[in-house]
């Protein structure tokens, strides 16, 4: 009897439903080849959930996710739900809520260059050649989850003491939160090139000074074999584009990681190619690093490869199906090597008949499997 894995599908908004269909197609092909079965339960998250239920993360969705062996998410959000009104629900609350509720404190964002796409970067080829880093972003703490408030301040302050609106967000960490993300980073480094860059703003922030101390203690006590360096976040933003090849594992606070991972994605020139895994102690979640691209939704032209590579990460990290995961990567590489491109990764010299849509791209990957 083939083993059955239960997967919660969260198509979300924008291009989400289109790309997740390709992820499922690839999973089904893997199932046939490796005599494994995948069973899917679809649930609502983000804008579509707000429309249907009034909240971005319905209880039902959380129950389905918790009961599954893994969650495959596409993307959430869109202009329809954009608001600065704190009283209105936002699609992103669904994403942040499910990360927190599932305890997904580790966000792995691999940044690699596919040889066939080396020209897609806006950086010089000699700078990006060989880039292979893993951003380990802390995902359930820091500035994203601290106390926050917006209120009307009757008194104002001091000489410019006009009354007016006031708002704050707080960045807070507890020791165990830094310890566990540090361990994840060191473990990842041991499977790679044995180097961790810990990114902080220790010249200004108290949380960063604590972060630095804890990361060094864990490193010295438990991972003396792994090289550890500290880098201030502003400097990291610079070094990432001047010497990206030097980075192996980069570990950092939630908000810093959000910003730096978009920057790192651009090194490859193709955000449409980058997958991510969010891991905790229970059910893990896999999603592309890109957003819901509302401008191209429904047109059948979105790049499904980041979603398909998220499936690769799911097979590797949640199901221990490393061989099948390698197979997906090989198939994607082969499709790119043959010159097939979606619009976002099209190069100046890509022939028109090699430009394909979302569904064809999924079919090509399946054909190579
Ligand atoms: C990401 C996204 C999310 C984040 C948004 C959509 C809330 O930018 O996964 O990087 O900020 O974490
Ligand atoms: Mg982001």
Automatic annotation (TrEMBL):
Primary location class: cytoplasm
Note describing how the cofactor binds: Binds 1 Mg(2+) or Mn(2+) ion per subunit.
Pathway linked to the protein: Amino-acid biosynthesis; L-leucine biosynthesis; L-leucine from 3-methyl-2-oxobutanoate: step 3/4
Cellular compartment(s): Cytoplasm
SMART domains recorded: Iso_dh (SM01329)
UniProt keyword annotation of Cytoplasm present: yes
Residues that bind NAD(+): 291-303
Sites where the protein binds substrate: 99, 109, 137, 234
Reaction catalyzed: (2R,3S)-3-isopropylmalate + NAD(+) = 4-methyl-2-oxopentanoate + CO2 + NADH
EC code: 1.1.1.85
GO MF entries: 3-isopropylmalate dehydrogenase activity; magnesium ion binding; NAD binding
Site, as annotated: Important for catalysis: 144, 201
Pfam families named among the record's database cross-references: Iso_dh (PF00180)
Gene Ontology cellular component list: cytosol
Domain of life of the source: Bacteria
Enzyme class: oxidoreductase
A biological-process GO annotation: L-leucine biosynthetic process
Gene3D superfamilies for this protein: Isopropylmalate Dehydrogenase (3.40.718.10)
Cofactors: Mn(2+); Mg(2+)
Residues given in the record as Mg(2+) binding sites: 234, 258, 262
Family matches, as SUPFAM superfamilies: Isocitrate/Isopropylmalate dehydrogenase-like
Membership in a protein family: Belongs to the isocitrate and isopropylmalate dehydrogenases family. LeuB type 1 subfamily.
Function of the protein: Catalyzes the oxidation of 3-carboxy-2-hydroxy-4-methylpentanoate (3-isopropylmalate) to 3-carboxy-4-methyl-2-oxopentanoate. The product decarboxylates to 4-methyl-2 oxopentanoate.
Quaternary assembly: Homodimer.
Protein's name according to its UniProt entry: 3-isopropylmalate dehydrogenase
Encoding gene per record: leuB
């Amino acid at each position: 009897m083939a083993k059955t894995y239960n997967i919660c599908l969260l198509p979300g908004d924008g291009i989400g439903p289109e790309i997740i269909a390709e992820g499922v197609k690839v999973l089904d092909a893997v199932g046939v080849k490796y005599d494994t079965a995948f069973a899917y339960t679809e649930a609502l998250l983000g804008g579509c959930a707000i429309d249907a239920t009034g909240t971005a993360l319905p209880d039902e969705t959380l129950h389905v996710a918790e009961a599954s062996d893994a969650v495959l998410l596409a993307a959430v959000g869109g202009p329809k739900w954009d608001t600065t009104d704190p009283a209105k629900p936002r699609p992103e609350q669904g994403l942040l809520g499910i990360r927190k509720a599932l305890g997904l404190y580790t966000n792995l964002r691999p940044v690699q260059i596919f040889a066939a796409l080396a020209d897609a970067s806006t950086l010089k080829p000699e700078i990006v050649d060989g880039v292979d880093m893993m951003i380990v972003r802390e995902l359930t703490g820091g500035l994203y989850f601290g106390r926050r408030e917006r209120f009307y301040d009757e008194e104002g302050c001091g000489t410019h003491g006009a009354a007016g609106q006031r708002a704050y967000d707080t960045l807070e960490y507890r020791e165990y939160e830094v310890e566990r993300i540090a361990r994840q980073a060191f473990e990842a480094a041991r499977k790679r090139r044995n180097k961790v860059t810990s990114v902080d703003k220790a010249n200004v922030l108290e949380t960063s000074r604590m972060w630095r101390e804890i990361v060094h203690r864990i490193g010295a006590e438990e991972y003396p074999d792994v090289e550890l360096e500290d880098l201030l976040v502003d400097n990291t933003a610079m070094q990432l584009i001047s010497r990206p090849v030097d980075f192996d594992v980069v570990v950092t606070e939630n908000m810093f990681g959000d910003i730096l991972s978009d920057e790192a994605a651009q090194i490859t020139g193709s955000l449409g190619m980058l997958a991510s895994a969010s891991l905790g102690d229970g059910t893990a979640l896999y999603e592309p690093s890109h957003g819901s691209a509302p401008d191209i939704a429904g047109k059948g032209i979105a790049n499904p490869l980041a979603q398909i590579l998220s499936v690769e990460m799911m097979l590797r990290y949640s199901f221990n199906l490393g061989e099948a995961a390698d197979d997906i990567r090989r198939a994607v590489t082969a499709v790119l090597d043959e010159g097939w491109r979606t619009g976002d990764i099209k190069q100046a010299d890509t022939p028109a008949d090699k430009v394909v849509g979302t569904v064809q791209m999924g079919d090509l990957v399946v054909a190579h499997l």
